[in-house]
Write a structure and sequence with these properties.
Length: 340
């Protein structure tokens, strides 16, 4: 049985890892005010952590699913194992990585716990390698698109190490640009209603020492129209076979604004996020998280009690609005008609 790899080249604790028979994960609901590491010892606690967004982001959810299967094998009676694994894989429906990595590790059940844990460690290692590769490919693509001038990037939600294990997806590109001395600014959208951009992305950018500004979601289209950014970088929770992408709600609006302003939108996500079984964006299930998140934040209520709300956690950006999709393995030029 192989141990998890040593952790190097990082600016914070790994988002999620396996330690002495249990899962440890950074509680993203506590950031930026506290850095809390949760010790998860039961499947029900893991499912609850996924649903309340203590762990979130497609790559991180994939690792959570992988280690969740190992946790289930170690702690759940055989008669209840299938149900426990199913509760993990369905905890959030939009991000394909969660179900995909849960299924991948569960396929090793017949080989015993050691094989299950080794497969989960492999998923963990692959996500770290994928983040490094995406950062490099994305930064190289921006060099091709923009030349050698310093880059002003705009991002939505959180796509950094918190959404993966380290470095991340779209924010890995930002980090690579910063490390190359090419980042002039990163405009991070606050990302209503849970403010992942304000709470998490701004925190990560500060930790890496990158120049950045926080932007109100509704200001982003206007700022793009005034030339405030050279590139828009977004992640993806699922990429359909035709190149349509599901990402944090607000990405579609940002894509429309970027197209109007003539600013390229580049989606950055691991190859594992591409779902060839989902033909187009219309077939992607979109999670609705209920009214509570819209009516206030935390314990503070802003809307009248019992106000109904529509709260999709994600939206779908058509491939026609995406300039390119960058994965850990390739660059897909959707602007030239290429599909995943």
């Amino acid at each position: 049985m192989q141990p998890p790899p040593e952790t190097t080249d990082r600016t914070m604790t790994d988002t999620i890892t396996w330690v002495d028979g249990h899962i440890e994960l950074v509680d993203q609901t506590a950031l930026p005010h506290e850095e809390v590491v949760l010790r998860v010892t039961t499947v029900s606690d893991l499912v609850a952590a996924i649903r309340r967004l203590s762990v979130r982001g497609a790559p991180a959810l994939g690792v959570a699913g992988a280690y969740g299967v190992a946790l289930a094998v170690a702690t759940v009676p055989d008669a209840e194992l299938a149900a426990a694994i199913e509760s993990i894989r369905t905890a959030r429906p939009t991000a394909v990585n969660l179900a995909r990595m849960t299924d991948r590790v569960a396929a090793r059940l017949a080989d015993g716990f050691g094989a299950v844990l080794d497969e989960a460690h492999t998923v963990y290692r692959e996500e770290i390698a994928a983040s490094i590769a995406m950062g490099t490919r994305g930064a190289d693509l921006i060099d091709e698109l923009l030349g050698d001038r310093d880059v002003r990037a705009m991002t939505i939600c959180n796509t950094g190490g918190l959404a993966a294990v380290r470095r991340g997806t779209a924010l890995a590109v930002v980090q690579t640009l910063h490390e190359r001395g090419r980042l002039a600014d990163c405009l991070a959208l606050e990302t209503r209603p849970l403010l992942q951009g304000a709470r998490l992305t701004a925190w990560e950018l500060g930790r890496m020492g990158a120049p950045h500004h926080l932007v109100v979601d509704s200001a982003a289209p206007f700022l793009l129209s005034r030339g405030a950014a050279d590139i828009v970088l977004a992640g993806a929770d699922r990429i359909a076979a035709n190149g349509d992408t599901a990402n944090k709600v607000g990405t579609f609006s940002l894509a429309l604004a970027a197209r109007h302003a003539g600013v390229p939108l580049v989606v950055v996500a691991p190859e594992s996020t591409i779902d060839h079984d989902t033909l187009d964006g219309a077939a992607i299930p979109i999670e609705d998280r209920g009214a509570a998140e819209v009516g206030g934040f935390g314990d503070s209520r802003t809307a009248p009690p019992d106000t109904p709300a529509i709260n999709p956690a994600f939206d779908v950006t058509p491939a026609a609005l995406i300039h390119a999709i960058v994965t850990d393995q390739r660059v897909i030029m959707t602007s030239r008609g290429e599909t995943p």
